[in-house]
Structure formats: C-alpha cells, structure tokens
Write a structure and sequence with these properties.
The protein has 302 residues and is an alpha/beta fold. Helix content is 42%, strand content 24%.
C-alpha cells in the first residue's frame, strides 16, 4: 500500500470517525485500515486519532495533518485530470512564429487542425522579434534563417526564396534598377527589429551583399512591406510574404537573373521525451502545411 492510499484511508477514517465503516466501505480487513493509520503515525511521529471503544476522533495534530492530506489528495486529482486531458486530446499548444507567417499561412488553415483536435487550444505568439523557446515558455517556435542552438531539436520545414521587389511608383520616380552596380543610385527600405542604426542598408544575394542607401528604417515586417508598396524603396522579403502583391502587380520582382538566397525554415522544440499525441500531430500538420504552401508558390528549394 503506497502513501497516497494510506492518506486516503486516513481522511476517510477522519470523516466517518470509524475504522470499521471505512473497512466495510473499501472492502478491506479492519486490520489493514488500522495498519495504514499506525504506519502514518509512526512515519510522522504524531498521534492522529483519539481512540475509544465507541468513537474515533482527530487529535489537534491530526486536524492539521488532515488539512494537508486533503490538499495533497486534491492536487493528485488535478494531476489525474491532466492525464485524462492528454489521453482525450485536450490541452494547449503555445507556438511562436513570424507575424506574417502566422497571418498568411497558419491562421487561414488552422480550422483544418481543429477538425481533428477541437479541444486543443493554440496560443499563438506571432511576433517578428526573436522568440525564445525557454524564456517565453513556448512549446515550439518557427524560425526563418540559420539556427545555432545546440540545446533544441530542429525539424526542417524546407527553404524559402528571398525576393527583391519594388513598387511601380518607385520605378516611375527612380527608374528600374538594371544591375547591382547601380544600387548606390537607388534606395532600399531598411529593416531592423531592434532599430539598429547603420549608414546603409544591404541586399543579400547568393554570394553577394550589396550596400544600398536608405531613407526609411522600420522594425516589423508589416511596416517593411507597406513601405515597399508605397514606393519608398527596394525591399527584400521571403516570397510567401509578398506573393499576393506580386501576382496583383503592386510589387515587381527585380534581379531575377541573379541567383537568390534561400532561407531555411525550422521548427525548434525542447528535447522532451513525452509529448502529447495532439502536440506531435500539430507539428506534423504544420510541417505539411508549410511545405505545401512553399511548394504551391514555387518558392521552395531542396
């Protein structure tokens, strides 16, 4: 008999004020009930009950012990409820990922996941800042670009192409850049999450990093995209962020003849042995979703 079972017996005896009634209720010999109480008294060196031939009542120390035992049993019930939730696919998933990936890809398709797991809550941290899996108590994060974190598991979602874009209004005012040697005559929109000031912005290509003047610095992807649409400079952004605007002609891709950069996309996870089945299903579903989206936009590279 483990300690939790002995504590349950103790609480029942305290409630019913009878060893015999508890033995009958639990279909156990009275000696087993007596042993459970005596073993607790011996372990904790305290007298729990006053015993007479007619009545059993708690001592003062027994009353204090009863309060603590009931609190412990209640907590155990909560843990069992947690096990029930896991078994019945109830729970929550907290995920961090870039804002526009959340709004353009995850949110529009999330109802597909809920069809199979309607009782799972998704806590979405859609932020352009660097999401810290441990400090922000997230279950997983999606990161675009190289990852150097030896303490986290990485699961590849594929690679996305970085596209270089300008608005028609920019071309009307400044002309269309024809080659990289002309870039000092043009303007980019600079983008830094922490607003790190630098004299120039930079455009990245395969094996090349080009210095470009800028007039505007922004600190989130949405502002960066809107600045490009407003004709305030050249922008360079993952293709899924701008696919709609490219197709509608609001942004024009330039330097298509130059080899672009492909950025890896990874899901990062804690090295946790026991994961709820619904969480593993979510990761599998998200991987398939991202790969389908990248493939359908012709922006994935193997």
């Amino acid at each position: 008999m483990d300690k939790i079972e002995r504590l349950r017996i103790f609480c029942l005896v305290a409630d019913k004020q009878s060893f015999a009634q508890v033995a009958q209720k639990m279909s156990l010999p009275r000696s087993t009930i007596t042993y459970a109480i005596q073993s607790l008294e011996k372990e904790y060196e305290v007298l729990l009950f006053y015993r007479t031939t007619r009545k059993v009542s708690l001592t003062h120390e027994g009353s204090l012990f009863y309060d603590e035992a009931m609190r412990l049993i209640t907590q155990l019930k909560e843990l069992n409820r947690f096990k029930y939730q896991i078994r019945h696919q109830q729970g929550k998933i907290s995920i961090g990922l870039p804002k526009r990936m959340a709004t353009q890809i995850l949110i529009p398709h999330l109802s597909e996941f809920y069809q199979d797991y309607p009782q799972v809550k998704v806590l979405l941290n859609g932020n352009d800042d660097f999401s810290n899996l441990i400090e922000q108590q997230l279950d997983c994060v999606v990161r675009v670009g190289q990852v150097q974190d030896e303490y986290l598991l990485q699961r590849s979602m594929g690679n996305i192409r970085l596209v270089t874009l300008v608005a028609p209004t920019y071309i009307q005012q400044h002309g269309k850049p024809k080659d990289l040697q002309q870039m000092e005559q043009h303007f980019a929109v600079d983008y830094h999450v922490a607003r790190n000031y630098a004299e120039y912005s930079h455009l990245e290509f395969d094996g090349q990093r080009i210095k470009v003047p800028y007039q505007l610095l922004v600190e989130n992807t949405e502002a960066y995209l809107q600045a490009g649409l407003a004709g305030l400079g050249i922008i360079q952004i993952p293709a899924f962020d701008a696919q709609y605007y490219i197709q509608s002609g609001q942004l024009i891709e330039i330097f298509q003849e130059i080899a672009p950069i492909f950025l890896p996309v990874n899901i990062l996870l804690n090295d946790r042995k026991y994961r709820p089945q619904y969480f593993q299903a979510f990761i599998d579903w998200l991987e398939n979703l991202l790969k389908q989206q990248f493939s359908s936009l012709s922006i994935e590279s193997r």
